[in-house]
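Input:
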Amino acid sequence: MSFFFALLFILASIVFVVGLALKINQYAKTPAPLRIATTPAPITKTGVVMRLFREVVFFESLFKGTKWTWIFSWIFHMALLLVLVRHLRYFIEPDWVPTMVWALIELVQPFGKYAGFAMVIGLVGLFFRRIFVDRVRYISAPSDYLWLLVLGFIGISGLMMSFVMHTDIVAIKEFFTFSGGQLPVDFPLIVHLSLVALLMLLFPFSKLLHVPGVFFSPTRNMVDNPREQRHVAPWAKALEEEQK
Amino acid sequence: MHRLNGLKRIAVVMMAGILLSISAAAISGSMVVEGSKAAGMKDCVAPTMDMRRNHMDYLKHQRDEVVHQGDRSDKFALADCVSCHASKDKQGHPVPVNAKDQFCDSCHDYTAVNITCFQCHRKVPEEK
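Output:
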């Protein structure tokens, strides 16, 4: 059991890290020569940094677009952040980090614990949106449902372990920090870990790429300066030089 | 000899690493501290593995049983944990059971669990 999961997670981690790196490399290299920022757009670099900050932290575009989607989506993502920070305790040992950092990880525990509920509530809201909003249901692909279900069951199985039947977290931590622990054979844990491995394996090939992708959206990350500065696509530049 | 290509070589190294780390150590030994009464005993009030996994449930506040019904027959009692697991310093004074690297702290610090038992309950054995 532990051996299988060790293999699975090593494979999943490799696929996750390498796949994500290749994707980010691809995004970074994709040419976007012309200014297509959605106006009104910032006209300075600082402005763009602030716009992206608002986009990433508050989901500004989504807020301006659909309030209901924004509410559930924002609840889900913020809760997920807390939950992920809480999970650091399974992968970091106290003496690897400064005392301050460990104190913060300790501090976040109760928040992350109850954020689990918020996360599931957000996902349920997003799931209902896909089912009950006609125009959304029409454009929903199977993978859209898949991710909501996968994340939902990860959340529910995690909450099960917090609130209904505990598992042996010391053994789990020893397992994940290569200290020789054996994974406890507990049903919610098996579900939780299997789905997380699935998520990591599929992450670089899925819509979850919006995580790095948001930083590369040309309509959001471009400075609005087409008049101050001339932008020429490479093929146009070649034509221009021919004419000279 | 047939040479392994890069990917296969990585796979072999990974496999070796996993095998090594799995065989390295079974679950680390006892957390019981030296100089405590528990150090000289074979088992806790329940088998060690059971206590490791379930002590938090066993020790949940027993207010209804103890205060309302006066039932103290339960074998799990925080005061007993403390009296058995607290160690003594060189002068023979008991060390708080939740102090750094003491019995409670070693695992709870490891898992970032902040225990609040001892904000009310005593952390050294009762003087007799």
